[in-house]
Amino acid sequence: MQSLNSQVFQPAKQNPGVQAHSNGQILTSVKDFFRTLRGTKAFLTLLFDDSGNLAPVLELSTTLVDSHAFQLAVEAMKAAPEVAEIIEERYVAPSHDLEALLQYPKDSLGYAYASSIKQAGFQPLAAEIKIDSDTSYVENRWLQTHDIWHIITGFDTSEIGEIGLQAFYLAQFQLPLASMLIANALIATTLLQPEVLSPLVNAIAYGWQMGQTAKPLIAQKWEEAWEKPIAVWQTQLNVQPFAQLELALDKISLS
Questions:
Q1: Element of type H or E holding 25
Q2: Could you tell me if 218 and 142 are in contact, meaning their C-beta atoms sit under 8 angstroms apart?
Q3: SS3 for 100?
Q4: pLDDT digits (tens, 9 = 90+) for 96-138
């Protein structure tokens, strides 16, 4: 008969399921570490790079797709039925044909969008990640429609206009990238360009205010109504464009 001591001092056999779970946790932790490292590098690059290079922005955005903050944001977004519907549908339009859009009337969203992209020498944005979750869908969709949001909100593509739009994003659906870019801009401006801090904060305030009162832009299927005038879109979505807000404030200050 085998002695009790030999049973007690033999190495315990680990349950295969427990071992697999432990290995999975380690792998997840390693992935999280390197994702955080990439995100931190991108954040610091943006802090001191005023070249307008989009690569660090896209890198930072990609590192946030699977973050807890993004998951919470998407769950909150789905409280609006129209947002929940488009996320469930995974609606993504075909690539935007700029030449075809230039054939629309000049007051239409399609024409304004295509002409602004062409004049700036830009290419339509697109996320290079697979859509396999709610967060990856939202990431793809906001990138595909980012320049449309510029037109609807009235924020231009200057540094201040971009951050104003990010404040709109933050108010609408707590996009993690938006808060990171706003924080980055406030730090960089305070340290490197304090003379433009006031207009930057004003743009952030305007963007936040518009985002709070506007209907969810992420739920819109813009591509199915390219012909609709921009002014009609803005009225239907309860958006008072940035230029109009500036004009209203100027009138108040002069009175």
A1: helix 16-48
A2: yes
A3: helix
A4: 999 999 999 999 999 999 999 999 888 887 767 899 999 999 9
For residue 108, give both structure tokens.
């239409």
Whether the model clears a pTM of 0.90, i.e. scores above it, the answer is no
Cα 17 from Cα 248, distance rounded (Å) = 64
Q: Nearest 5°: phi and psi at 206?
A: -65, -45
Position 51 scores a pLDDT of: 57
For helices 55-64 and 134-153, the axis angle rounded to 10 degrees is: 140
Query: In Å, how far are 5, 136, 240 from 132, measured between CA atoms?
Result: 53, 6, 35
125 within 8 A of 144, measured Cβ to Cβ? yes
- pLDDT value of residue 96: 92
- C-beta of residue 107 within 8 angstroms of C-beta of residue 231: yes
Helix/strand/coil for 14: coil
pLDDT band at 4 (very low <50, low <70, confident <90, very high): very low
Helix and strand numbers (H, E) in the chain are: 13, 0
Size of the chain, expressed as the number of residues it contains: 255
Residue with tokens 């030999």: 6
